[in-house]
Amino acid sequence: MSGAGAVEAKIAELGMTLPEVVPPLAAYQPAVRSGVHVHTSGQLPMVAGKLPVTGKVGAEVTAEEAKQLAATCALNALAAVKSVAGDLDRIKRVVKVVGFVASAPDFTGQPGVINGASELLGAVLGEKGVHARSAVGVAVLPLDAPVEVEIQVELIED
To answer: How many CA atoms lie within 13 A of 157 on its CB side?
Structure first.
């Protein structure tokens, strides 16, 4: 049940590669399946095992940089989904996206930052990527990451 299908072909067409699942930083699983739903843990914008940038959005990190990092988080979330679903073509729809933005005290552009994740999911999955969403500003994230994203997806039934 593992393989690269149409969704991964679309990721490649967009010039990206589905990464390996980011190993957990603590006592949790990257994703769990419950029936036809997959819930991912919060995904940091890890690339090749490290954060490309750290700090607060609106201070050390620009909103545009953070938006790109949110897209990386979403790509990492898709890798986590694949780890329990076997194939991204089994995604019926993205149900919800929750994004956390480590924000400078006066930064209020969290929705624009998390658009990076939402836009990536739409580009990769089309209508299946349309979702409900929350974008939350927080004081700090693990490893001083600027952004963290978790997703919930519904799978096509077995």
So the answer is: 0
Tens digit of each residue's pLDDT (9 = 90 or more) over 88-121: 999 999 999 999 999 999 999 999 999 999 999 9
Backbone angles phi, psi at 150, to 5 degrees: -125, 150
CB hemisphere CA count around 48 (13 angstroms): 2
DSSP 141: -
pLDDT at position 54 is 98
121 Cβ neighbours under 8 A, 6+ residues apart: 74, 78, 94, 97, 129, 131, 151
Taking the C-alpha atoms of residue 69 and residue 77, their distance in angstroms, rounded to an integer, is: 12
- CA dist., res. 134 & res. 33, Å (int): 21
Give CA 103 to chain center in angstroms.
18
Query: With a cut of 70, which residues of the chain have pLDDT below it?
Result: 1-3
The tokens for 48 are: 């090749």
According to DSSP, the residues that pair with 34 across neighbouring strands are: 37
pTM (two decimals): 0.96
Q: At what angle do helices 6-13 and 63-85 cross, to 10 degrees?
A: 160
CA distance 112 to 64: 9
